[in-house]
Inverse folding.
């Protein structure tokens, strides 16, 4: 029989307090003057400030100076080559992928007729008309005024929001919308030019689509570089709230190497020790502390310093306590929710400009709170 260890803390009352304040105010803001977490009346949905784009292509808006309305003649050297290959060679500021996309979208004509076959073999003397062709500089996050999320903190260097479950952090392709970064770029257009990955738009870290909680982005390249340094040197501490299956009595730390599971066509991590020859081993360290038993479940406070994909989900599941609702990692399937109950509660770091230690906290989202209340019998 498992021994019950008393858990002495004010976690539940604290969650109740911040949830009540959040419902009243709409969120929290970390004020630059005091760097204390205080209720904010200025918390706003991302959609309030709209960045006006300049050009529409196939129903998508782009703030861009793409290649358009250009005519070229196929040379003898280009005869016999594929249409997308010729386009990529003629327009090096574009890319092979964008050339294929332009053809399939109907943006290219050959001798006056639209050509949607990217593999079309060309002959010398043919006239190619390029109506619209994106350049690599256009591979950027597009503004989407329909995206909503509560702003937790903003200043000239950083912005942090409380991402709801079900919303991806970033688009995987430039034409995608509906992600958190689409909404942030809509409100803060400068984000589109920050960072070293165009489709991250200054985002400093990611959380899974079905995970809720704090996500932070840098508004300047200087802030991005400094925050990336802190992440790389493991100076940033992230605390999560996880509801797991089973009654966990004692705190613990899980350490080990994770790797991508080669047996499935989608992203899932496993203990690297279970694989004969993993492509890449990634060290992950996850510490947890039980804070409340709720029937056959346990609410955990989880702290990580490493940032391996799915590390909390994988390491907890590997140790027999999967997150409630996380069927990918062996939790019991649930018909009453599409999310798993993991929430990025706080992030601690040194401010990139003022060098003041900061901690930004994200109250539990409404769906997480309601699930807990129902589980407690409330």
């Amino acid at each position: 029989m498992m021994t019950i260890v008393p858990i002495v803390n004010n976690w539940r009352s604290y969650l109740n307090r911040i949830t009540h304040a959040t419902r009243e105010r709409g969120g929290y803001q970390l004020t630059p003057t005091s760097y204390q977490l205080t209720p904010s009346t200025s918390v706003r949905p991302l959609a309030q400030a709209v960045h006006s784009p300049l050009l529409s292509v196939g129903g998508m808006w782009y703030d861009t100076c793409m290649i358009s309305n250009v005519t070229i003649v196929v040379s003898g050297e280009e005869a016999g080559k594929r249409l997308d290959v010729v386009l990529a060679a003629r327009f090096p500021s574009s890319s092979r992928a964008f050339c294929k996309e332009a053809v399939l979208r109907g943006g290219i004509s050959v001798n006056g007729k639209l050509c949607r076959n990217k593999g079309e073999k060309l002959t010398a003397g043919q006239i190619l008309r390029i109506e619209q062709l994106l350049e690599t500089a256009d591979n950027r996050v597009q503004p989407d005024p329909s995206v909503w999320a509560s702003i937790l903190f903003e200043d000239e260097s950083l912005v942090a929001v409380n991402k709801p479950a079900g919303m991806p952090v970033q688009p995987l392709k430039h034409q995608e919308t509906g992600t958190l970064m689409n909404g942030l770029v809509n409100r803060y257009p400068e984000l589109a030019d920050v960072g070293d990955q165009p489709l991250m738009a200054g985002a400093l870290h990611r959380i899974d689509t079905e995970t809720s909680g704090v996500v932070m982005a840098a508004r300047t390249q200087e802030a991005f570089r400094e925050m990336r340094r802190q992440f790389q040197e493991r100076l940033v501490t992230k605390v999560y709230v996880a509801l797991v299956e089973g009654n966990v009595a004692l705190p613990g730390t899980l350490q080990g190497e994770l790797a991508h599971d080669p047996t499935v066509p989608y992203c899932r991590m496993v203990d690297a020790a279970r694989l004969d020859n993993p492509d890449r081993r990634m060290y992950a360290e996850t510490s947890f502390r039980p804070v409340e038993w709720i029937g056959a479940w346990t609410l955990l406070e989880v702290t990580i310093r490493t940032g391996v994909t799915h590390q909390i989900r994988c390491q907890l599941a590997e140790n027999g306590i999967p997150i409630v609702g996380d069927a990918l990692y062996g939790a019991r399937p649930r018909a009453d929710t599409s999310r798993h109950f993991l929430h990025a509660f706080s992030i601690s770091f040194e401010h990139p400009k003022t060098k003041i230690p900061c901690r930004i906290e994200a109250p539990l989202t409404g769906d997480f709170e309601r699930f807990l209340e129902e589980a407690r019998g409330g």
